[in-house]
Amino acid sequence: MHIHILGVCGTFMAGIAAIAREAGHTVTGSDANAWPPMSTQLEALGITVMQGYEPSHLQPAPDMVVVGNVVTRGNAAMEYVLNEGLPYTSGPQWLAEHVLQGRHVLAVAGTHGKTTTSALLAWLLEHAGLEPGFLVGGVPQNFGISARLGTSRYFVIEADEYDTAFFDKRSKFVHYRPRTVILNNLEYDHADIFPDLAAIERQFHHLVRTVPGRGRIVVNGADRNLSRVLEQGCWSERVSFDDDAGWQAAGEPQAFELRVGGKSAGFVHSPLAGRHNQSNTLAAFAAAHHVGVPVGTLIEGLAGFRSVKRRLEKIGEAGGISVYDDFAHHPTAIATTVDALRRAGQGRVLAVLEPRSNTMRLGAHAHELANSLKDADLCFVYARPDLKWDAGKALAAVGERLQVAADLDALIDAIVAASMPGDRVLVMSNGDFGGIHHKLLARLQQG
What we know:
Strand order of the largest sheet: 8-7-9-6-12-13-14
CATH superfamily of the largest domain: Mur-like, catalytic domain
Structural class: alpha/beta
CATH class of the largest domain: Alpha Beta
């Protein structure tokens, strides 16, 4: 079967492409933009990616068009699909019908930590010999690819609350029908499609409704917003983490005692920095334990976890200055990432931020950004031309530590001028940020 994917370079759709290719289908795709790691993954798989959305990309007609949620009415390729009556479906629906049916799905939902937690969960099952399939919104470095079919009945999926497609406004995760689900945390996000937090909570409860009575919901016991979700109804086994009743960590993020139900279950050495990753670990442990992985095997597996590309990933070093890349694009994620890097070593932390997500560009979190950057020694913010708010004004509370630039080269100049040996430059964006990481390293190398 020939499958053509519209929006193939998105993290989720690139995973669909990888799985469809592994299943033996001929896969092609169209997209307006592409950047690593998904662009390099598709290239390595031999999947042809066509620039833009031209009707000619669909000639001759594929057997199925899989439509990403980046595609809207008015898109030339989509209009052609509709006018010609070509068969089409969404990515989540295709996955549900062709991959997830009949499998034990372990889904990871939450505003933050989905990618790292799902990658860790997949690795813990792999380490235990369970050979799971998975689809993660990034590239787990233990596997080198964002998605695979797997050989067992287990499938781990990053469960996103964003809408499915222009013709299906339900959250993606309602398609997955998990037997094990992690609810990591819940905050307001996706201001382009959700009017308020209550609307997101309702979607999370739709997910809860799909979990069978014999299934397990692993929930952050310290998150009041998730408590409200479960107060709407819960029909499954509930296991908590980050509270006294469930899975708990006593100690620093990278060295702590694991406690389950108030009893010691072992001592953990973790390769992951930050309190947020300690919580992610507890959630992954509780989910993997649900499918029979012993605690000792979980602790052993964690030690071999190599995290995910673009999650506090060190890109390089020049002139004694290290450059890190992270996907953080929400105030809470920004704050926890800065804190994690600060705790992980010595030297100043220079935070470099591109407010790129739809929510960020609309300004829904503008008033929270200054506080999220409070632990950075210096802050550099790219005032994109499509920002709907004044970055300098919104971030005035940062004070003299802040520099805002509307030009990328000017931003790089400011970072180079301010940096010194021993500094750690943390670049945060949910896009490629104009290739700033390598441009910055090249400038730093020049001295």
